[in-house]
Here is the input.
Amino acid sequence: MRLRGVRRYHWARDVDEALSLLAAYQGKGALLAGGVDLARSPRTDLEGLIDITGIGLTYLRAEAAGLRLGATTTLAEVLGHPQAEGYAGGILRETLRQVAYPALRHMATLGGAVVSAHPWADIPTLLVALGAEVRYRSAEGEKRAPLEDLYGTDFRRVFRESVLLEVVLPAWAGAFAFEKIGRNAGDIALLNVCAGLGLVEGRIAWARVAVGGRPERGERLPWLEGMLVGERPSPALWERAAEEVRARLEVGSDRRASAEWRREVAGVLVRRALLRAAGKAALCASTSS
Ligand SMILES: Cc1cc2nc3c(=O)[nH]c(=O)nc-3n(C[C@H](O)[C@H](O)[C@H](O)COP(=O)(O)OP(=O)(O)OC[C@H]3O[C@@H](n4cnc5c(N)ncnc54)[C@H](O)[C@@H]3O)c2cc1C
Here is the structure.
């Protein structure tokens, strides 16, 4: 039986209370959001669960600088939010509707997805491509960091002592597209790709490409982004990008897919994502001019 050591369930009223309960358990307590991941945790040392769904972190706000999404906002709430709809070419809806299935999306929170950050998960790939920053608070005070940087550290240890408050997404003059391949529609990814670009006078002004499930967690490909900037979108450019990916992407084998298969398919997914992102970006550029 999982979590068999748990004896107490707390309903935190605010961030401070959640933090002081966490501190009181000295490593034997855990924050509980949607519970989708925690319920499957093999941890037998946990004695207390601290429910954080009532501490005021369920919101989505659009600002000139981008979007702010509270950590306990569920994936379904983001999907259904009118202000998420047009963000960066509709990338939030496009990605989140490919995450698991509706029942799970009504429980799972964005914050839980950021912290659990499975290597095959789609949300880290999405957020890293989008340049998301996270705001979190510990007993030492509040911090803000690019998620990409945090994932390069022992971030799970950070979140054993901190409450993730919100995810901040910058505004992008351009569009993103997401591609995922699994065994069926509700499956976790064998590989996922999020690519975005912006166009100025028909040329690529910026590009962002992240690939996840390699089988490692989603990471950006700066060498590919650099190759795209300054070029004009064309089928030949997307094919060149696919070739670069096949030649240079670091992939590995696990029980779900071989490295050879991942290398080949990553090229296809990157080409498709770039093609679709460019189509959406062209539409954004024509409607804003
Ligand atoms: C069957 C299944 C299918 C899935 N399919 C996909 C998929 O297709 N694509 C994909 O991207 N993901 C998928 N996931 C992963 C899923 O998105 C995450 O498990 C989910 O978002 C976790 O959110 P939660 O609110 O349930 O987290 P919880 O289970 O409540 O918490 C998870 C961890 O995060 C910590 N935590 C939660 N919130 C905070 C916070 N605010 N601050 C600090 N720590 C916090 C908890 O203490 C715990 O350690 C799948 C998961 C399952 C179980």
